[in-house]
Amino acid sequence: MIAFGPVPSRRLGKSLGINNIASRKVCSYSCIYCQIGLTPVQTVTRTSFYDPELLFSEVEKHLQKIAPNDKPNHLTFVTNGEPTLDINLGKEIRMLKKLNIPIAVITNSSLLNDPGVRDELMEADWISVKVDSTEEDAWKRINQPAGESDLNSILKGIQEFAKAYNGKLHTETMLVEGVNDNLDLISQIALFIAALHPQTSYISIPIRPPAVKNVKAPDEEKLVKAWQIFRNCGLETEMLTGFEGTDTCATGNAYEDILNITAVHPLREDALHELLRRNTAGIQVLQSLIKQGLILEIDHNGWKFYIRRLFGSLR
Ligand code: SF4
User: Fold this and answer.
1) Which of 40, 133, 144, 285 is deepest in the core (most CB within 10 A)?
2) Do domains 3-240 and 254-308 have the same CATH topology?
3) DSSP output for 195-247
4) What integer pLDDT is reported at residue 194 of this predicted model?
5) CA distance 216 to 177
6) Under CATH, what is the fold of the domain 254-308?
7) CA–CA distance from 208 to each of 32, 37, 247 (Å)?
């Protein structure tokens, strides 16, 4: 199926998915956390999967079936693999722009060292680039790249792209316990990302069954530290942890507000007390959430932080 959804997405609102890679997974990476399994066809060579006219007409037909109040906020290339491996991507983006819906592309960045790929992506309105590691060994372990790939040239390609791109740039970093969750490495990643000036950098964790057994998310304490490191680099940082939280505050329901915000990022104690005050709620709301095992209190750098309890049944 070329077009599917729309599906709700915290990052993209209602997102109509476009799978521009024909049925079997084709990717330049074989990430150990990939939710669609290891990569059977691993390549960095771009090829044609669909006639762009067919892809456009499938998306157009799909849109016609959607009720007006379900109209998507984005048409998103999110595929069975890596969307930039599609040699027709630039042409498809140009054609889809006629539909007057912003175009988003979620890429693993591995082909951004190709100036042609960078040019094609310039036409999209919203891009997320993957930066799981800036260090060779961890990159190889987590992303298991195709043999021809070269990390330095990919990182340079990401920098070139970020410099020239005028749309909304985002980054995504998946953290895996014991692979890329070392604090020095996280600092290197954060510094690299900060120089790209993205709108938001997302820290994600494996929440669905991974391609490789025993792949685990770091614990909440490590996530709080990672989030702080990103924030200290000046990055607007959110976490993608499987909870659909929002960052809005003081809606009058302190219980919901704390759950929503701590799903997106850790809440420092002073901010949490302010939130309770604005909701005219007492400390017992917080105590109840902790007692129910819904949030965790973590000490870090002399402060208490509160974070949504992520693992309950996963660990
Ligand atoms: S880049 Fe995406 S599709 Fe490719 S292996 Fe990694 S997670 Fe899976």
Assistant:
1) 133
2) no
3) TT--SEEEEE---S--SSTT--PPPHHHHHHHHHHHHHTT--EEEESS-----
4) 98
5) 6
6) Arc Repressor Mutant, subunit A (1.10.10)
7) 12, 11, 24
Judge if the upstream peptide bond of residue 40 is cis by omega within 30 degrees of 0: no
pTM, 2 dp: 0.90
Sheet hosting strand 303-308, strand order edge to edge: 267-268, 303-308, 295-300
How much distance in Å is there from the Cα of 46 to the middle of ligand 1? 16
User: Which of 25, 31, 144, 175 has most ligand 1 atoms within 8 Å of CB, for mutation?
Assistant: 31
Nearest-CA residue for ligand 1 atom 3 is: 81
The residue extents of the domains of the chain are 3-240, 254-308
Pocket around ligand 1 at a 6 A CB cut-off: 27, 29-31, 34, 36, 39, 81-82, 108
Q: How far is the CA of 299 from the centre of ligand 1 (A)?
A: 34
Q: How close is the Cα of 54 to the center of ligand 1, in Å?
A: 25
Q: How many CB atoms lie within 10 A of CB 247?
A: 12
What the block records as the tokens of 218 is 């770091």
Residue found by looking up tokens 């507000």 in the block: 257
Cα of 182 from ligand 1 centre, angstroms: 22
Nearest CA owner, ligand 1 atom 7: 34
On the CB side of 24, how many CA atoms lie within 13 Å of its CA?
A: 6
Write out pLDDT tens, residues 207-237: 888 899 889 999 999 999 999 999 999 999 9
State whether CATH 3.90.550.10 applies to domain 3-240: no
Cα gap 184→188, rounded to integer Å: 6
| Cα(243)–Cα(205) distance, integer angstroms | 11
